[in-house]
Amino acid sequence: MIVRSSEVRKYGSAKVLKSGSTEVRKYSRMLCAGLGFLMMLAVFSSCGNSYTAKGHVKDFMSEQMALTDVDYIAWSNVDSTLHLTDSMLEAMHKRAQTTRLVKGLIKYQPRTAKLNMITLKYAIKKDTLTATFYLDDKFAGIVGVKSNPTTK
Fold first, then answer.
1. SS3 sequence, 22-65?
2. How many CA atoms lie within 13 A of 100 on its CB side?
3. pLDDT tens, 25-57?
4. How far, in Å, CA of 56 to CA of 138, rounded?
5. Strands 142-148 and 115-124
6. What are the angstrom distances between the C-alpha of 141 and each of 73, 83, 88?
7. Containing H/E element for 88?
8. Is 122 helix (H, G, I), strand (E, B) or coil?
9. In the chain, what are the helix, strand and coil shares in percent, each to the nearest 5?
10. CB-based burial label for 145 (10 Å; 0-12, 13-18, 19+)
11. Exposed end of the chain (fewer CB within 10 Å): N or C?
């Protein structure tokens, strides 16, 4: 049973719609169409973020990591984290520099409370490597990078 609020305002009493009526079916179709539209919007939004994140990672690898002839093997889905602290990021920056993952001093994007992350499995010559890249919440740039142990 559905009671339309417009009917209550218009007539001062509720008009009860029977479950098999055409108005109920029309209302159900409109509700399904609206939910479908919202789901498509969410899917396209996440695809755009993934595309943007991959672009930043590729730029970072070519400019800041000085890697050439990189074969991109697999990308993870974009995920988010709230657990990375300033001290963890600072340690990550120092480790990336001392292990020569990056070249020289890097100007990273400023951190935000929520960070996005994407993991890339890539190959250089015959070596297969994995790295996780952290981006700010607006996907404006790389906040930090860490090399992951490679598993087969």
1. HHHHHHHHHHHHHHHHHHHHHHHHHHHHHHHHHHHHHHHHHHCC
2. 2
3. 777 777 666 666 556 545 444 466 888 899 999
4. 12
5. unpaired
6. 22, 19, 18
7. helix 86-98
8. strand
9. 40, 25, 35
10. buried
11. C
